[in-house]
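Reviewers of the previous submission asked for a worked example of the structure-prediction workflow described in the proposal, so we include one complete record here. The input consisted solely of the amino acid sequence. No template or homolog information was supplied to the procedure at any stage.
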Amino acid sequence: MPIACFGEILWDVLPTGKQPGGAPFNVAVHLHQLGQSVDLISRVGDDDLGSELLDFVASKGLRTDYVQLGKTHLTGVVKANVDDANEVTYKIVQPVAWDYIQYETELETLVEQAEVFVFGSLAARQAGTRETLYRLLEHARFKVFDVNMRPPHYHKEVVKYLLEKANLVKMNHHELAEIMAWFGEETDRPTAMRWLANRFDLQAVCVTCGADGALLWANGQLYRSPGVSVEVKDTIGSGDSFLAALLKGWLAGQEPGDMLRFACATGALVATHQGATPAFTETDVQELLAAQAV
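From that input alone, the workflow returned the following structure tokens.
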């Protein structure tokens, strides 16, 4: 059964030119590259940038059946500042086409049949797409919340609601600290992850820590993986490829420590390239891991 990824698809405008992006799109591409069946739910404008994005989606081997074409808003654009390769910052234009994903019965059917439904907080910034997301969540089997808090494009109450609906949550360490501050709770990472899992009845909580690797709370246990040392070109798409690799391991019933290590290596591999969706295979990831072990 397919995985359904919901949310933004856009152009990241870099000093070197524009690159296709958007977290749900990036996750979908990387899931496909790792051998998973996946569909993308999004919306582009009826313009040249939208046509180029649709062509790129198809070139990556993904269907465009669930990418809507809107006539009232332009295709999304994000201006990325990569002066610090390890901490890319973004200026996200609004409103754009992906803010207005419309609810359709075929989307409901897709989500009902999907093994996993992946969504993020950025797509919920505007009422149009947010209402569609909320409706689709009621039909999803296993819900994966990819926290993506880009100021000023999120609201605390929306993030809390999405946590309530999720089964597995992935965020970075900055987001973990901010969310815990909302509740006035302990910000020590293992303690915070356990608290979130209990508070929101989550099967798993995953926190990425940049070059320091990642943590995973699952099965009542904490798993750690160190970072994988690479020469970073930029970190755009690294977290998205990490999530794709983690979900591949999760669906295969892999041991949590092993899936976390593989996910860290996948994110590191993508960071050695420019742009969010470089081509790679599972073998490439395994070779990087093998080289680290030498």
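The domain at 3-293 is CATH 3.40.1190.20 (UDP-N-acetylmuramoyl-L-alanine:D-glutamate ligase). We consider this example representative of the routine output the project will generate in years two and three.
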